[in-house]
Specification:
It contains 4 helices and 6 strands; from the N terminus they run H-E-H-E-E-E-E-E-H-H. By secondary structure, it is an alpha+beta fold. The strands form 2 sheets. A 4-stranded mixed β-sheet has the order 1-2-5-6, covered by helices on one side. It has a two-stranded antiparallel ribbon with strand order 3-4.
Length: 165
């Protein structure tokens, strides 16, 4: 029996996908819900009106990453974002609207969560997650090219302290 190279490559590709799927850790169930985002205090990267979907997507992806790292596969976590107040304050300076960072414009996110564990225990809480010392973080964080570096750090710290221990 002779094998054609294209068949061998196809079989190898299928086998590698199956092996990767079997080796990949199962991810926990996280559902993030943004409650009335049109009423958030400040959830805009570069404009003042409407819902900035980029902010919501960045925060949800960041939380999904933490959930996959910390939560057991059998856990079900539902996070409801009730309000967002990004670090700094947008300025009306000229055509661009730079975000001015001050000691009193720290980031804050109001949220509520429900965690269902595999043993039947349910944890619920409503919290205001803030970082009043956001400007004291390293220069590396301040030069982070990804959007929302202060909010991502703040949420990561909260997630780790709340669910990863």
């Amino acid at each position: 029996m002779t094998f054609r190279p294209s068949i061998v490559r196809s079989a190898a590709a299928v086998l590698s996908v199956v092996c990767l799927a079997a080796a990949a850790p199962a991810t926990a169930g996280l559902r993030v819900e943004f409650i009335a985002p049109e009423r958030y205090t400040d959830a805009h990267l570069d404009h003042f009106q409407g819902i900035d979907q980029r902010v919501l997507q960045i925060l949800e992806q960041h939380l999904q990453g933490w959930a996959s790292r910390c939560l057991p596969a059998s856990a079900e976590l539902h996070i409801r974002i009730l309000d967002i107040d990004l670090a700094g304050q947008q300025s009306w300076a000229g055509i661009q609207h730079p975000r001015i960072m001050r000691e009193v414009t720290w980031p804050g996110i109001n949220l509520a969560y429900t965690l269902h564990r595999s043993d039947g225990k349910v944890s619920e809480a409503r919290q205001r997650v803030i970082d009043m010392h956001y400007l004291s973080h390293s220069a590396y964080l301040r030069s982070d090219s990804m959007p929302l570096p202060y909010e991502r750090l703040m949420l990561g710290n909260w997630f780790e302290q709340t669910f990863c221990r």
